[in-house]
Amino acid sequence: MKTEFSPAFLNTPDGKLANKILRTCVHCGFCNATCPTYQLLGDENDGPRGRIYLIKQVLEDKPVTQATRIHLDRCLTCRNCETTCPSGVEYGKLIDIGRKVVEQKTTRDFKEKLTRKALLNLLPYRSRFTPAIKLGQVFKPLLPKVLAKKIPKNIKAGDFPNNNHTRKMIILEGCVQPALSPDINAATARVLDHLKISLIRPQNAGCCGAVNQHLSDEEKALAFVKQNIDAWWEHINNGAEAIIITASGCGAMVKDYAHLLRNDKEYAQKALKVTELCKDISEVIINEDYANLQHQKQKKPTKNISWHPPCTLQHGQKINGVVEKILTECGYNLLPVTDSHLCCGSAGTYSILQAKISQQLQSNKIENLTKHKPEMIVTGNIGCQTHLQEVSNVPVVHWIHLLDH
Ligand code: SF4
Ligand code: SF4
C-alpha cells in the first residue's frame, strides 16, 4: 500500500515504522476472516483491512473524525489478524501509532475521559488496586451487579518457597494479578522449587506498562518499562537466567521492551537483554524435566479440561502447542474447543470500555469452552481467567496449578 506522509512525519521513528508496515499490506483482506469484531459487526471499518486504511488516512493528515476513533477503539488488539496475514503486516505496532495520533486529534466526552483516567490511575498500581479489590470483596453484596461480577472471591496464595537454589530466575509480580489471583505466582514458585529453580521478586518492579500503552499513554508506559528494567538489572548482572511472566498479556508487553526503547540511548541495550530473557512460564517448563514433577507420581485420574489460549500467548507471543504438550504429557485430557483462535473479549480494559462487544465474545467463548463438559477451564492470562470466570459454571484457573501438587 502506497503512503503519502508529510516529509516531517516520515522522518520521525513512528513515521518510518508506519510507512514500512503500511507498505507490506497488499489489501487482500484475508485478515478480515479471523477478526472477531469484523465477524460480529460485519463493517469493513471494524476489520483489520479497514482499520489499516483508516490509520493510513490519519497519518497522511486527512481529517480525523469521532467515527475513526470509534472503529479503532473497537479493535481488541488481539492480533489475530497478524497470525492470518500472509504478508507479515505488524498490525499491533501500527494501531499503537494510529491510536496515539487519533487521541491527539479528537476529543472524548467527559464520561469516557473520566473512565479512562480512573483506569489509568487504578489498575497499574498494586498499592491502590489490591485494597480496592479487598474492599470490593467485603461490600460485594451492596455493589451494582455489573461491578460485583468483576470482583473475584478471596483466594489464598499458599506457600511461596523461600529457597536458595543455584539456578535463579526473576518473576514479574505485576499489578492486578496479585490482588485477583495471588495463588498463580505462588504455585509457579512451588513448581519451580521442584525443578530446583529459585524465584527472585524484585520489590521495585511493578506494572509491565501494557495498560498505559494500550490506552495511548505512552509516556507513562515507558516510565513503567524503565522502572522494571532498573529493578531487574542487578539480578540480571548476577546471573538470573530468565524473567518469568505468568500473565501472557504482560509477557507480550515485556517482549516488546526492545522495540519500545529502540531509540533510547540509555536503555536500548538493556531493553534488548530484558526482551531476550523474558519467558512465558510455559517456555520455561517445556525445557525442564517436568515429567519428574511430583504431580505425575500421584497417579490421579485423568481430568477432562478445556484450554483457552490467550490471544497474547497465541497471536502476541506466537506460542502455540506448548501448554497443550505439557498438560497432555502430565496426564490431562484436553477437550476439543471450536474457534480457539478467537478472543474471549477480555483484552485488558476492553471489557469495561467496550462492554457490549466484550460480552458477546465472552458468551460465544464460554459456549465453545464448555461444550464437552470439562471439569475445569485452564488458561494463561489473568485477564481471560477473571473474564471467563464471571460467566462460567466450572472453575477457571491458570494451567500452572495443574502441575502444583
Ligand atoms: S493486513 Fe495482511 S491480510 Fe490484511 S489486508 Fe493487509 S496484507 Fe492482507
Ligand atoms: S487486532 Fe483483533 S480485533 Fe483488531 S483488527 Fe486485528 S483481529 Fe481485529
Short summary of the structure?
The chain has 405 residues and is an alpha/beta fold. The chain is built from 24 helices and 8 strands.
Q: Structural class, from secondary structure content?
A: alpha/beta
DSSP helix count?
A: 24
Major beta sheet, specifics?
A: 4 strands, parallel
Bin the helical content. 40-55%
What hetero molecules are in the model? iron/sulfur cluster
Number of strands: 8
Strand order of the largest sheet: 2-1-3-4
DSSP strand content: 5-15%
Question: What is the CA–CA distance across the termini?
Answer: 54 Å
Shape: globular
**Would you tell me the overall average pLDDT?**
95
What does this 3D model show about the protein?
With 405 residues, the protein is of the alpha/beta class. The protein has 24 helices and 8 strands. It has helices spanning 7-10, 13-24, 36-41, 48-59, 66-73, 80-84, 91-105, 110-122, 126-138, 145-148, 177-180, 183-194, 210-214, 218-237, 248-254, 257-260, 268-277, 281-285, 294-297, 311-316, 322-329, 350-353, 355-370, 382-389; strands at residues 167-171, 197-200, 243-245, 278-280, 304-307, 333-334, 376-379, 396-398. The strands form 2 sheets. It has a 4-stranded parallel beta sheet, sandwiched between helices. Strands 6-5-7-8 form a 4-stranded parallel beta sheet, with helices on both faces. The longest helix is centred in the middle third of the chain and has 20 residues, at 218-237. The N and C termini lie far apart (54 Å). The model has no long low-confidence stretch (mean pLDDT 95). One iron/sulfur cluster (SF4) binds at residues 35-37, 48, 51, 75-81, 91. Residues 35-37, 48, 51, 75-81, 91 line the site of one iron/sulfur cluster.
